[in-house]
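Sharing a chain and its predicted structure for anyone who wants a worked example. Both blocks are below, sequence first, C-alpha cells second.
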Amino acid sequence: MNQIGRTITDAANGILNGKRYLIHDRDPLFTAEFQSLLKSVDVKCVKLPPRSPNLNAYAERFVRTIKESCLERLLLFGEKELRTSVREFTTHYLSSTLSIRLHSKRHGRGRKTVGAGFSSHGGGNGM
C-alpha cells in the first residue's frame, strides 16, 4: 500500500497531485504509515463513519458503471490509454447525468426527496 501511496502522490503524475482530501472507507489497508505519507504532501485523509454504506453509494455506483460500460469493453495497452479512456468516459458520464437533471427540471419532473441520501423521480414516464 505504501508503493501505491508514493505513486498517487507523485509530484508529476500522481492522481492526488493538487488535491486536498482523500475520502476512504475503514479498510485496514489505509494504515497510519499510508496516512502520514499523504499528510506529508498536504492531503488530509477523511474516514467514512462506521456502518454508513449510503455515504459510499455514489462512488460505488460510479465505479460499477465505468467498469461495466467502459473498461470491460476495451482492450487497453498501457496507462496512457487507460487514463484517456477514464477521462473521456467521466466527461461523458457527468454531462449525460447533468443533461438528465436539466431535462427533468425543465419538464417539471424534478427530484423529490424520499429520505436522507435517497431520491426518486416524479412524473409519469419514470423520469
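Comments welcome. Residues 112-127 have pLDDT under 50 and may be disordered.
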